Every structure is written in structure tokens, then in C-alpha cells.
Amino acid sequence: AIDIATLRSRTGYITLDEGFGNTGACESKITYIDGEKGKLFYRGVPIETLAENSTFIETAYLIIYGELPTRRQMSDFSQRVLRNANIHESMMHFFDGGFPFSAHPMAILSALLNSLGSYYPNMVTNEREHDLEYFDDAAALLISKVRTIVAMSYRMKNGLPLIYPKRDLGYSQNFLHMMFSEPYHEYYPHDDITKALDLILLLHADHEQNCSTSTVRIVASSGANLFASVSAGVCALWGPLHGGANTQVIKMLEEIHRNGGDVNKAIEDAKMGKKRLMGFGHRIYKTYDPRAMILKEAAQKVLKVVKSSDPVLDIAQTLAEKARNDDYFIERNLYPNVDFYSGIIMKAIGVPTEMFTAMFAIGRMPGWIAHWKEVAERVKGRITRPRQIYQGEIDVDYMRMRDRE
Ligand code: ACO
User: Fold this and answer.
1) ipTM over 0.85
2) What pTM value is reported for the model?
3) Candidates 237, 248, 252, 280: which one to mutate for ligand 1, based on the most atoms within 8 Å of Cβ?
4) DSSP secondary structure, 188-246, as one string
């Protein structure tokens, strides 16, 4: 076998940057993060401004098309989203025995988003120019239907009758309706609950080259259609180190509760490196995650509205308070991140923990769509094809099976 030094001399120089922590893989005009100052901008607009003045749907337009919509553009976009709220009637069969009750919402979501494309063959040709021609329809369709699919998967898994979206409800309110209304009992959420959900979606709408968005771009770079690309994004988001972290926050809080609710012990364990506090710290933000700042306020409002008596939510508040005054967390810039407060809000409004990551996917859809578009519109785009530093052997003999024992 050839030794590694010889092999390296043959392949030439390759940069090793495991996890691409330091590699700019593309140029983009969508989102800017200043991790030192704790700033996040969508198309240049500060996230705080959007949280205060905009909605998830208007922000989705901004992210996808690069500028805030005029009144007319907003109305057209909202109408397109509304018209697409139902899923094709034959897709309903997926919720009627197509998946076992135990199926994870993310498995259902990635499968259905990809198959959704096959119901719209005019939009999915894998021919760049053609797919771009139908982009406006496909984008609005995905933003609308991802929400319906998530709500339907919740109802299926809980043996509840499937509820259709209503024409007169806004995006987030329609989602809450599809989740929680009963055939003879409509669910009318408090405004603070609808606003908190809309904020969660808005604040998750894009975050530059995270794992799922990079995945969408990589798939798109091969020329694959929008539906296939965002379906791959869902798979990447599923992992506990990415979108799955919000689920881990509640699991950790429940474990503290099961062990007698001793918050000090959880903090001491984290300081001794036994267990990390889930929902604390961030790779890029070395100060407060600006999204967490906004959601913290929303969470306080929601907890007041639901008058929660859930001990897990009390534990969350105590934990955040104690960590805020502890030198270990102060010195290491460990603040609660967006997952901490989005988890608290979702738990308080009754979304089961298993659904949290699928909720994240609804929010991230505009970002994935915008990145797909950016890749598809490149004049001279190359397929993404990283190299590797091979560490194995070469020229190994084939040994026959009988000689291998
Ligand atoms: N709890 C306790 N200690 C922590 C935590 C935590 N959550 N996070 C980091 N630390 C400590 C580390 O032990 C280390 O201490 P040391 O200097 O004494 O060795 C120091 O802080 C720096 O830690 P790093 O691992 O270098 O920080 P990094 O930036 O690589 O990690 C990460 C960021 C992965 C988010 C980390 O903070 C973590 O694991 N947090 C918990 C999981 C989580 O909430 N993930 C969601 C991220 S947000 C999102 O994905 C939307």
C-alpha cells in the first residue's frame, strides 16, 4: 500500500476545515449576522425592527424577494399563500394510514414536501429556467402547505379529525386553528399567543449558512428542484445539534423536575462539565442572541395569558435567572439562546415537544426558498463538490472470502 505522504504529494494541497467553520462557501445577500454585537439583519433590516413592525408572511416576502413588498405585492403574495393553504385531496390519504401513528413529524414532513412536487409537475422539471419561471407559485405554495402538513401530522398522530384551514384567518392563527380547533369547538387564541407564534416563525426565517440551509444550497447546486432541496433541508434540521435543540431544552427541564426540581444542581453539573445546559450558548453569538431577547418578552406575555401551573416552566424561569447571575456563565458569554425561549412558548401554548423541530421548519422555509433562488439564479454556478483528506490505504489486495478467517 502507498503511504500517506506519497498520496498527499499526488493529490496536491487541499485545505482541511472540518465542519467548514472558517470557510465561506458562497456569496449571499440574504442575511447578515454580527455575532460579537449580537445583531441579525434580514436583507439589511434589523431583526428587532421586523419583530416590532412586520409579520412572518411580510418578512418571508422580504427574505425571498430582497425588499419589503408594496401594498399590492403584499396582497398578491398573501392571496397566493392563502389559496394554497389546502393540500391536494389525494395527499390526505397519507394521513389516513399512510404513516404509522409513531412516525416522527420530521419524517412525515420531509417525505411529504418532496412528494408534494409530484402533484405539480409543471413546477418541477429540474430544468433551471423552467423551474424559475414557476418560482413565485412554488414558493407561496411551499410556505402555505408546510404549515398545513405539520398541523395535519399532529392531528393524525393524536387520532384527531383533520381540520381544514379557514379563509378568514392569518397565517399563524390558521395554524393554531388547524392544530387545536375541535369540530364543535373553535379555538380562538389570545392575541399574545398568535403574536408569539408569528414571532417564533419570523425569528427562525433565516440564519445564513447553518447546516440545513447549506444542505439546501448543496442540493440546489446540482440543479435539483425547489421541493427536493427543501425536503433535504428538513432532514438536516432534524438533528439534535441543529433544529432538534429546542426539543432538548424541554427534555432537560423535565429531567430537572423529575429529579426533584433542584435547579442549583443542574447549574453545578453544567459548571463541572457533566451536562451542558441546553438552550444556553451559541457558536456565533458571543453576547445575547438577539432572537432570544425578543422571544423572552413574548414568553413572559404568553405565560401570563395561559396562567401556567406547569412546574417545568417555573424551572425554566428560575434556571435563566440563576445562570444570569453566575460567574461561570457570565465569563463564557453563555446566554439563553432562541431555542430556550421558543421551547418555553411552544410548551406553554400546548405544542407537544415532538413537534418543536417541525415548527422550526415552518419558520425556516422562507430562508431555504431564498437560498435555493440565489443558487438557481447564479449566472455561472458550480456544483458544490468539496474535497477530502483521505486517511485510508490504497492498492489493497482483494482477499478471497475463504482466506479471510
Ligand atoms: N452549558 C454549560 N457550559 C457550556 C455550554 C452550556 N450550554 N455551552 C458552552 N459551555 C462552556 C463549555 O464547556 C466551554 O467551557 P470551557 O471554556 O471551560 O471549556 C465554553 O463554554 C465554550 O464552549 P464551546 O463548546 O467552545 O462553545 P461553542 O461555541 O463551540 O458551542 C454550542 C456552542 C454548541 C451552542 C454550545 O453552547 C452548546 O452546546 N449549547 C447547548 C446546546 C444548544 O442550546 N444548542 C442550540 C444552539 S442555537 C441554535 O441552534 C438555533
Assistant:
1) yes
2) 0.92
3) 280
4) ---HHHHHHHHHHHHHTS--SS-HHHHHHHHHHHTT--HHHHHHHHHHHHTSTTTTTHH
